[in-house]
Design a protein that fits this description.
This protein has 247 residues and is mainly alpha-helical. The chain is 80% helix and 0% strand. α4 packs antiparallel against α5.
């Protein structure tokens, strides 16, 4: 476990803190012939080597093989990424790819059996953990759809002209995900003042929108959406708190 986290820290430091913007631009322009990519791999080589040494792993052929696999896989994944546009999907694929190799190497160097790994995974995903995962998933898209359907008759009252200044696409939905997740988290942590602070902060931002629009329908619509969102977040958070105590 120590080796895994050391390799993870080494990866994050080398990938995000020690990689210069000029190297990234060089990779984008020159692909596999990039000097920036070569420098980036040297940094990863140093950081990964340090992580393996600090972990106390025996410095034998197995450790050397692991080092080569991590650096070579990172090189291949980074080249693949230079042929893709810089969007969230490819960034996540890139990072997950690195994480898979780091995890595999950590298991291999630690001489863990498949049975041991599966047992640890089983221990981690106990009933409480699965319940919390389900809670946050429910507070995302499902609750967003419930609120949308509940407000349909009010949404239909806005004509196209009134929707011209409706804001970023899907931004309101994402804000709802975050606010309900934060509300549930505050409740589980017993920090009820955090819920009040969140409501106050959202009210400040929303007040400007409502005042500029000077539209009673829009004001009431925003208030309904906010109250629905907070109600779901509080209710599910309290339910989860009760179930955690009961399990």
């Amino acid at each position: 476990m120590k080796l895994f986290f050391l390799l993870l820290v080494a990866h994050f430091v080398a990938d995000f803190y020690l990689q210069k913007h000029s190297w990234i631009m060089c990779k984008v322009r020159n692909k596999e012939r990039s000097i920036g990519l070569f420098k980036h791999m040297l940094v990863h080589l140093v950081m990964t080597s340090a992580a393996i040494i600090i972990s106390g792993t025996s410095l034998d052929y197995q450790a050397l093989t692991a080092l080569i696999v991590i650096i070579f896989s990172h090189y291949i994944i980074d080249i693949w990424k230079t042929y893709r546009v810089f969007v969230l999907k490819y960034f996540l694929i890139d990072q997950v790819g690195h994480l898979i190799f780091i995890t595999g190497i950590s298991i291999w160097l630690s001489d863990l059996s498949i049975q041991t790994v599966l047992f640890e995974v089983h221990q981690f995903f106990d009933v409480k953990t699965l319940m919390l995962i389900g809670l946050y998933l429910f507070l995302g898209k499902p609750v967003s759809l419930l609120i949308t359907l509940s407000l349909t008759k009010y949404t239909d009252q806005f004509n196209e002209a009134e929707k011209e200044n409706e804001g970023l696409a899907s931004a309101g939905e994402l804000i709802g995900y975050f606010e309900r997740g934060l509300i549930a988290t505050f409740i589980l942590l017993g920090q009820f003042t955090g819920v009040g602070f969140l409501l106050a902060a959202k009210s400040v931002f929303r007040f400007g929108d409502m005042r500029r629009q000077s539209d009673r329908k829009l004001t009431e619509y925003i208030m309904l959406g906010t109250l629905f969102s907070f109600s779901f977040g509080i209710a599910v958070g309290k339910l989860a708190d009760y179930l955690l105590a009961a399990l």
